[in-house]
Amino acid sequence: MKKYQVGPETARMIKLHHPWVLADRYTKNWCGSVCGELALLCDEEQKPLATALLDPADRVVARIVGAPGVKLDAGWFRNRLQKARNLRQQAGLAETDAYRLVNGEGDGLPGLTIDCYAGYLMVQLYSPAWDSYLPLLLEVLQELIAPPGIYRKLRPQETRQLEAKGGGKASGKEYSLLVAGKAAPVPLQVQENGLLYHTDLREGLNTGIFPDQRRNRLDLMQRVKGKRFLNLFAFTGAFSVAAAAAGARQVTSVDVSARYLDVARDNFSLNRINPKRHRFIQADVFAELANLQQAGERFDVILFDPPSFSTTKKSQFSTKGGTSQLVAATLPLLEPGGLLISSSNHQKVDMPTYLKELRRGALTAGCELRTIYRGGQPEDFPVSVSFPEGDYLKYVISVRD
Q1: What is the pTM of this model?
Q2: DSSP assigned state of 154
Q3: Would you call 370 helix, strand, or coil by DSSP?
Q4: I want to staple 263 with a disulfide (CB 3.0 to 4.6 A). Which of 152, 236, 352, 398 is the partner?
Q5: What CATH number has the domain spanning 210-400?
Q6: pLDDT tens string 3-35
């Protein structure tokens, strides 16, 4: 195992158990380092600090996998995966089979996540440094869990290469690969909080449900009975189904994608909720907000959970700046005393910054917002106290005065 020296600041962060080594003037001197290489990191006095998996072409040039001398063998993977499984006993999954089994840095497997969908597994390797270890990982997963099938989610650069060759969404090809076992049914039915949803594991990027919002959907169900609920950027309607199942008077779901809204209607029917009693609107969100305001529509609860960045023919949205505009456009539709539920998964925007966006939007709309709840990821998305970057999900409930 080769030795590589890190600078004093990196050495300090390693001693604080931070799992990343970022590129700097010291890592530029790592001559001959190879992606996927297991290396011993040392301080300026050549004292061993940790074992790391190298990815010299990335901003995160190394990911800490353990103490000096650790080997990534079957025993190492078995130990980390078993600890992750044990931790999920705290996640309240009695009526849920769509959840995260391994949450990267939060489970001691930096740059690697595994999601479970009705027994099938979806592995994502955020760095090519993990690629050579995939066969060993699959072997241990089959030994410990014996899933019917395992998919590997492609990285963004791999999907771009696929599209360049004429693949990807445009041709209906997958953004994930079946790497072990048999293929999952299409659609694959999963359960969350006792409700049913359709997913498609071939998609990879958007399987049809985001498990990190599970606790927040459960919270929503306690707040919407008898209320008029507006779900913006509705995707496949998971929040909408939860609201309707909890007794919302009317659920309005807005999304730019007709295909996603068709899945949302199917999800309503899957739970024996008549979709014809609710509204599904295919439109750009900002354009539809203007239409709803002009029509004099009002709602008791409004939720938006937009993608961090998206572009349509009519508009472009990004969390930075876009959130305040969204708040300003939404508040005129919210009844006084109504709930504005806002959420973002943008990792680079922390909670204090996100709350400033809400404030800007409220000031623009001439309204007062009072925050009554701030939430984030559920228990199957653990975050190490040494890695605050892993605490990415913001979920805020505010009352309009």
Answers
A1: 0.93
A2: P
A3: strand
A4: 236
A5: 3.40.50.150
A6: 999 999 999 999 999 999 999 999 999 999 999
